[in-house]
Amino acid sequence: MRKIGIIGLGHVGRLLAHDLVIANKTDQLVLIDRDDALAVGLKTDLENAQTALNTRTKIILQDYAALRNVDILITTFGNSSLLKKEQMAELIRNGEAVREIAPLVKQSGFDGIVLNISDPNEAITAYLQQQLALPTEQVIGIGTTIDTARMRQSVAKAAELSSQNVSGFVYGQHNGDKVFAWSTVTVNGQKLDESINGHHLDQNQLRINADLDNWYTFKGLGYSASAIVAWTLKIISAILGDGELSVSVAIYQPQYSGYVSFPTLLNRNGQGHPLLFNLYPVEVAAVKTAVGAIQQQLTVLQQGGKIND
């Protein structure tokens, strides 16, 4: 039996719950949010939707004890609009949420895989792992998965090809020190310093175009959800045993003694083996810078959300 839990029913949590039910990706779905009325409303809406389906998902509300035998727990709390007011606001708010839910999740006896969507992703993922006292392999974050997808799409558009023809990864820190690892990027097996489909690609412009996708989405909608949910479903499928998936997610990387977005294989056990590419020296240095920034955010969380002057 497939069982998934979601804590936090904002834009991403609600869309994810909808897609899990409509696509029959789970047999039981545990939904938890601070807002009881919101949770009840979502459950009612999803149950109404199931009258048009040939499948049935059991929906459980506001019950931490039901997390005991959940395969994957997805944390999607947060409020991205806070970033317009104060850079550290979402860090502090989501740190408070971690401290609120962690004792309840631990008390349930949960021992599955945690997939964190909340931002700042790498730091909150690291803090979740510490507060839940789970093995690092079982606690991962979506990290720079979407940044990687945007980078590949930017390359593909410039080369006038499908993004399926592009490989490569963005490392580092989502919504922070992103590292566009051009050394890992190929198009149909060709490096970017070669002529690609008759085009000479400008790496600076490729990065600008990838970042613009994020800007347009946030400016127009005020949040990002569709791409996050689509990739979350892909990650869920890999973890539930449909095969291995290579993706740049927030993992504990022993090489850097901390959490950072890094390409890895995901499988039934959660984090598999990191993918080790020969990065350019400047890229290695940039990843180290990102690790330092993540550690600073984690230190703030460990201090209870107090920012030292």
UniProtKB/TrEMBL annotation:
The keyword Oxidoreductase appears for this protein: yes
Keywords, comma-separated and alphabetical: Oxidoreductase
Lactate/malate dehydrogenase N-terminal domain span: 3-141
All residue ranges annotated as the Lactate/malate dehydrogenase C-terminal domain in the record: 144-285
A Pfam short name: Ldh_1_N
Domain of life: Bacteria
KW Transmembrane helix (keyword) present: no
Similarity field: Belongs to the LDH/MDH superfamily. LDH family.
Name this polypeptide is given: Malate dehydrogenase
Source organism: Limosilactobacillus fastidiosus
